[in-house]
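Researcher: Here's the sequence for the chain we discussed earlier.
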Amino acid sequence: MSIQNDLDKLNDDIAAWDKSDLKDLRGELNSLGVQHRRNSPSKISLQKVLKSRLRKRSGLIDRISYVMPRHAIFLHKVVSKGHPITNPRQAKEWYSPVVDRNIPKLADIVAEGGGNLIINNLDIR
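Model: Thanks. This is the structure I predict for it:
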């Protein structure tokens, strides 16, 4: 295999993980009963506006970013305008539990893919 094939496979595996993680994040929002309300200042529901971005450097994905409105973090931390962090309402932790649960699979993908890149492209002289 060539280096480019190894990079492409690793990038494809990371992108597939990202797509799966994003689906799990949206599923977690749904399971917690997070719904868009007509009187919300946001025009679009959180499930629809939640996106991810993959950044490549030197042909390899090196960053996964999640793009979300600010109120998504407030929902996770139970903080909002007029409700301080000492608020007695229950947190809807939708982000950290999902990512924490999925991160080991990403670590395995990166470890195996990086190892394959090195092993398949050893140059013995």
